[in-house]
């Protein structure tokens, strides 16, 4: 018997809850600022590598006041293993300056203000809003975009469309946790490379 898209989404959410009832934020941080920097560094870089780099960076500067005292070259040298270091180091320095000058060193708590910061796109803002401030958001990175298409929850046209589709399919109170459940489940059972559909509990049922 064929099920509706809504029923499929409910079943997938149930499976994700079964397999990953607890989902800690994978990027190590201790406040909104350190999370913001970690998410910025994670662009085209694994969370695992970011978590190896940030302790060295945060030992020197774990707040915008100290970060602006570092030269861009100093930041770049520390974060080089994360890739895209010229752009990321400049963004970290620039956004820290704005936080000091405009927000008294605090990370703003709106999507609009966050997305005005250097190097901060909608996905990064969504992660900070959801995980640091508890505001409902469904951050869609390339992995979630890929999973949503593979599981038939979105047509895979672009990440913006995928985000809209997922928000329409799942209850708003589940967005923040589901975002992380997608990530953890995808890493363990539904990877981009070496994917074996018969070993993925969701693909076996729905893909």
Care to describe what's here?
This protein is an all-alpha fold and 207 residues long. The protein has two domains: 5-24 and 137-206, Helix-hairpin-Helix base-excision DNA repair enzymes (C-terminal) (Endonuclease Iii, domain 2, Orthogonal Bundle); 32-131, Hypothetical protein, domain 2 (Endonuclease III, domain 1), CATH 1.10.340.30. Helices cover 61% and strands 0% of the residues. It has twelve helices and no strands. It has helices at 5-19, 32-41, 47-60, 64-67, 72-79, 85-103, 111-115, 122-131, 142-150, 159-169, 175-189, 201-206. Helix 1 (5-19) packs across helix 11 (175-189) and helix 2 (32-41) runs antiparallel to helix 8. The longest helix has 19 residues, at 85-103. The two termini are 15 Å apart.
DSSP strand count = 0
The count of domains is 2
CATH second-level architecture of the largest domain: Orthogonal Bundle
| CATH topology category name of the largest domain | Endonuclease III, domain 1
- Seen as an oligomer or otherwise, the chain set is single chain
In the predicted model, the low-confidence regions spanning at least 5 consecutive residues are none
The outline comes out as elongated
**Which CATH class of the largest domain is shown?**
Mainly Alpha
**How widely separated are the two ends?**
15 Å
Radius of gyration: 18 Å
Beta content: under 5%
Note the main sheet: none
Count of separate DSSP helical elements: 12
- SSE order: HHHHHHHHHHHH
């Amino acid at each position: 018997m064929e099920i509706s898209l809504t029923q499929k989404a409910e079943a997938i959410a149930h499976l994700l809850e079964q397999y990953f009832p607890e989902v800690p934020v994978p990027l190590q941080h201790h406040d909104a600022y350190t999370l913001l920097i970690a998410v910025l560094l994670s662009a085209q870089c694994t969370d695992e590598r970011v978590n190896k780099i940030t302790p060295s960076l945060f030992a020197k500067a774990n707040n915008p006041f100290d970060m602006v005292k570092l030269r861009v070259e100093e930041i770049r040298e520390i974060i080089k293993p994360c890739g895209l270091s010229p752009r990321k180091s400049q963004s970290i320095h620039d956004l820290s300056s704005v936080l000091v000058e405009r927000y008294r060193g605090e990370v703003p708590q709106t999507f609009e203000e966050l997305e005005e910061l250097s190097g901060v796109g909608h996905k990064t803002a969504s992660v900070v809003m959801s995980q640091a401030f508890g505001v409902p958001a469904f951050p869609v990175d390339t992995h979630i975009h890929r999973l949503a298409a593979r599981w038939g929850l979105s047509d895979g046209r672009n990440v913006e469309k995928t985000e809209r589709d997922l928000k329409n399919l799942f209850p708003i109170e589940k967005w923040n946790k589901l975002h992380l459940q997608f990530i953890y489940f995808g890493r363990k059972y539904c990877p981009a490379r070496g994917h074996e559909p018969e070993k993925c509990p969701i693909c076996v049922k729905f893909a």
